[in-house]
């Protein structure tokens, strides 16, 4: 009994340590807002100097040389600050993991290998303290993605200012996720490497057979018994969803192309370390790439050490639709700086911005409502004192999600202020 009370006390202390009750979702937009005298980066390649951005009822109403009307409107003078579309993290375990080393805070994977019926959205935790650290860096939307096994289930797009997962849902069940086993023969033992490759190919064939059975099942008019896993693949075969294939090596990418051809489904590569090697084939087969972890070393020792920095520009030049991503959950806050690195290795600044805004929206299927600052789209907006892709000059001063003014405070900032006060540094 004594140990029970000690545990309860510890949990209460932890909840108080992580509590952020003063950071809560914003109410719906009431008055029309005009952001004036700003440098507006629309996300589609256009830059408007000394422009005005207007939005009302959560939607963008005007961009450019806009006259501010008289009446009951809110006017905010940005004084030369930079306005951007909200950054999109296309593939993350945000809200499914809180503390990676604490099992009780992880709800990112299900038992078993083939789980297409799993929905990540219902496990999304809107009270995650990590969410606020992303918003304060300009990330306003995220693709919440399950992990584990071969077929892990469906991802959903969430907006990062919500009371619960129902409020957060921006687009639900947009993609199925296939984690392809690696075909990289690790180690110096040839026999062991051959066995690993054989086992990996068998697992890939297991997924291919599962898809064939599901397709045959879905072509039947009636069933003696309902197979929930096969039913979960119906939107994929109807092209209402895409298959996000997590893979990196050329052999794996070619197998992903084969899946797209055999089953006549939309495929997106996630990872894509070697995508630059077969960029032409990806473009010809209309396969997009979620390019993961640009700040990393090459997978192949013989590759140029700067290859991960250059891959984005090479895909751009080949006409491949791609966006940038990052692994994990808290790491997403550096996403815009990785876009800055891509801009230093062959891309223009506006092309790099597209890679974390409009391109990501296109790949996720939400480009009709967000991803760029255009009339009629959701007012998902970030304001920075400087270049948002430069960690030295980027200070986010304002953010809006669907027109709502977002609280940019977070636990890390609160601790910073707390100890400044303690040591008389305020």
From TrEMBL:
**SUPFAM superfamilies, alphabetized:** Composite domain of metallo-dependent hydrolases (SSF51338), Metallo-dependent hydrolases (SSF51556)
The residues forming the signal peptide are 1-19
Per UniProt, the keywords (alphabetical) are: Signal
The reply on keyword NADP is no
Domain Amidohydrolase-related residue range list: 332-405
Family annotation (Pfam families): Amidohydro_1
Q: What is this protein called?
A: Amidohydrolase family protein
Classification of source organism: Bacteria, Pseudomonadati, Bacteroidota, Chitinophagia, Chitinophagales
